[in-house]
Structures are given as structure tokens and as C-alpha cells.
TrEMBL record:
Highest taxon in the source lineage: Eukaryota
Residues that bind glyoxylate: Y24, Y129, R164, H254, R257
Pathway: Photosynthesis; photorespiration; glycine from 2-phosphoglycolate: step 2/3
Needed cofactors: FMN
EC number of the protein: 1.1.3.15
Gene3D superfamilies reported in the protein's UniProt record: Aldolase class I (3.20.20.70)
Residues at which FMN binds: 77-79, 106, 127, 155, 230, 252, 285-289, 308-309
Name of the protein in its database record: (S)-2-hydroxy-acid oxidase
Subcellular location: Peroxisome
GO terms classed as biological process: defense response to bacterium; hydrogen peroxide biosynthetic process; oxidative photosynthetic carbon pathway
Annotated FMN hydroxy acid dehydrogenase domain residues: 1-359
Keyword Cell membrane listed: no
Length: 367
């Protein structure tokens, strides 16, 4: 059966993957209300398309932190990709590079920063968890920089791991043939079996709960890479992030895997964008499955979006070719949405191109 959209890869991945692995990728925290809401909130935003505009040429290119990319669709950090496919992060890196976009490598990757760099050219960011042992953090950041990574995406919503009940039921742990490659030489690469979630136990043992804004400033003293703060959901924190020297903000609820009953990222986006007042770019991840979703995020002020689960599901289904296809399908859908909305470049996508269900007609532009 021919795959015609991104969502169809999930069922194929579910069939192919061991239950423990599929559940790890697919699940959210607790009641999974936010997991559903990340999708549902997009469905409550409608278009106000403009017609009779010459859309014979459409330009989707953009720049992120000064790097030119082919489209505002990038790859989010997702952990342990070799659980999905033997080529794991190598395949994802090659697919992102072929699509002319950015890949973010997870701290908890099953391939190291050096291995991913060895796949060839490409713009890559590194997602960072701050360990209790700061020497480990320093070493890792320096390795990423040396390997040619261009920015740090600092995850700030995980002082403790969210309660993911399927991981508890499955006693989730990293399969024995795999390691967290970036930590292999530091005896931090293995995850012990636990009587709940092996990952939750690992986080409790290794990740620093004291992490605070001063650490964002500390990070800037050990690297010249720009820092994106990933996991911001409020205007207040967006303002503090800028004061702390962040080069950009990623509006994220960690794929609905941390605190349940936070808003969908698309619902939190506008508040964050308004708070930044254009001082730094704002990005979004969480729930993007269609080109229409990408357009909606840009109309609400995002500079670009990141996709997570669609990458691991397509990777499980078809390896590198699957990830390439997901990026191509989203690109094609987004281009079509732009054309049918009357937008020829990203700068032409405005707030007036959408209507949200919480708006009354008085919010709409005066005729």
C-alpha cells in the first residue's frame, strides 16, 4: 500500500517494532491528554486563504541562526534511534542533509556526535541534557563543537523524567546490543534494568535537578555555539531566556512526555512569540504531522518547526528512505498550503491567514 501521508508510518512502525520500543516512542505522560491535544489544537485553527495571487513560484527557503535551509521543517532530537532501525541516527542525518535541513542529535543517541558527523556534510544541532557531573557536560559540548555541530538545544523541561506508564509496565530499558554512544567511555552509556522504567531511574541518577537559569549563562562560558532553550511554554520564561542570553526558543512540551495537562505547543506559541518581541527566533515542536500544521505555526509567529515522532516511525518502517519521504511529503504539503493560501514566500505568511476558534470577528482585520 502506497504511503500518502506522514501519519500512516505510525501503524507500520507499530507492526514492525517490539512493543517496548514502539510504546517508548509513541507514549506520553500519565493520561496522555496533552499528547492528544498537541494534535487536536492544530485542528481548531482554520485558514483565511487569499486568492488570485500569482503562485507560480514559491520560495520556502529560510535561515536559522544564520544557516540557510531549504524549508522551515527540521528534525527534532529523538533518543535511541537504533531501536527503530539498525542505521539509526546515521540514516536520519543523511536524510536531513539530503533534504537541505537541520538535524538535532539527542544526547541519548545510539550514535555519537563524531559518528553522525562522519555521515558527511549537513547542518546539525546538538540537544543537551545537563548531567550532575559538569565535567561530562563540558566534554560533550566540546566534542559536539569539534565535530562541527552548530548550536546547542538545551532541554529545560526535564529536571525529572515525566511519568510514562507504558515504560513502567514494560520495564523499559535500552536493548542490550545498544548503548548511549555519547557516554560510552564514561560508564554512563548503559541503562540498568529497574523495577519501573529504566530510563526514569537513569535520569534520577544522572540528570541535574538543580539546573537553573544561571546554568544557561554557564553554558555560554564553555562554548561559542548559540544556545536554543527547548521547553519554554510561557511568556515569562521566554523573557527570562532572552535575558539569560538564549539565541532562540523552542516552544516544546517534550512531545507531551513530561508534564501532562500543559497546553498544546501550538496553543502556547503566540504568547511566547509576543513576549520575545522579535528579539530572538521562536520555533515549535509537538504534533506537526501535515504541511498545513507547518503553515499554522508560521502564521502564529514561529520561525520554523521540528518533527520528532514522524522521524522515528518512518525510520522504523523504511530506514533512511522513510525519513526522506516524511521530509519530502511535509515539504510538498507545505508548498501546496502556501500556494492555496496565496503566499509566495515565508514572509508573506501572516496572522491574517488563519483564524483560531478562540477569536471573535472583532479580532479580524478591518475591511
Amino acid at each position: 500500500m502506497e504511503i500518502t501521508n506522514v501519519t500512516e508510518y505510525e501503524a507500520i512502525a507499530k507492526e514492525k517494532l517490539p512493543k517496548m520500543v514502539y510504546d517508548y516512542y509513541a507514549s506520553g505522560a500519565e493520561d496522555q491528554w496533552t499528547l492528544q491535544e498537541n494534535r487536536n489544537a492544530f485542528a481548531r485553527i482554520l485558514f483565511r486563504p487569499r486568492i488570485l495571487i500569482d503562485v507560480s513560484k514559491i520560495d520556502m527557503t529560510t535561515t536559522v541562526l544564520g544557516f540557510k535551509i531549504s524549508m522551515p521543517i527540521m528534525v527534532a532530537p529523538t533518543a535511541m534511534q537504533k531501536m527503530a532501525h539498525p542505521e539509526g541516527e546515521y540514516a536520519t542525518a543523511r536524510a536531513a542533509s539530503a533534504a537541505g535541513t537541520i538535524m538535532t542529535l539527542s544526547s541519548w543517541a545510539t550514535s555519537s556526535v563524531e559518528e553522525v558527523a562522519s555521515t558527511g556534510p549537513g547542518i546539525r544541532f546538538f540537544q543537551l541534557y545537563v548531567y550532575k557531573n559538569r565535567k561530562v557536560v563540558e566534554q560533550l559540548v566540546r566534542r559536539a563543537e569539534k565535530a562541527g555541530f552548530k548550536a546547542i538545544a538545551l532541554t529545560v523541561d526535564t529536571p525529572r523524567l515525566g511519568r510514562r506508564e507504558s515504560d513502567i509496565k514494560n520495564r523499559f530499558t535500552l536493548p542490550p546490543n545498544l548503548t548511549l554512544k555519547n557516554f560510552e567511555g564514561l560508564d554512563l552509556g548503559k541503562m540498568d534494568e529497574a523495577n519501573d522504567s529504566g530510563l526514569a531511574s537513569y535520569v534520577a541518577g544522572q540528570i541535574d535537578r538543580t539546573l537553573s537559569w544561571k546554568d544557561v549563562q554557564w553554558l555560554q562560558t564553555i562554548t561559542s555555539m548559540p544556545i536554543l532553550v527547548k521547553g519554554v511554554l510561557t511568556g515569562e520564561d521566554a523573557r527570562i531566556a532572552i535575558q539569560a542570553g538564549a539565541a532562540g526558543i523552542i516552544v516544546s512540551n517534550h512531545g507531551a512526555r513530561q508534564l501532562d495537562y500543559v497546553p498544546a505547543t501550538i496553543s502556547a506559541l503566540e504568547e511566547v512569540v509576543k513576549a520575545t518581541q522579535g528579539r530572538v527566533p521562536v520555533f515549535l515542536d509537538g504534533g506537526v504531522r501535515r504541511g498545513t500544521d507547518v503553515f499554522k505555526a508560521l502564521a502564529l509567529g514561529a520561525s520554523g518547526i521540528f518533527i520528532g515522532r514522524p522521524v522515528v516511525f518512518s525510520l522504523a518502517a523504511e530506514g533512511e528512505a522513510g525519513v526522506r519521504k516524511v521530509l519530502q511529503m511535509l515539504r510538498d504539503e507545505f508548498e501546496l498550503t502556501m500556494a492555496l493560501s496565496g503566499c509566495r514566500s515565508l514572509s508573506e505568511i501572516t496572522r491574517n491567514h488563519i483564524i483560531t476558534e478562540w477569536e471573535t470577528p472583532r479580532h479580524l482585520p478591518k475591511l
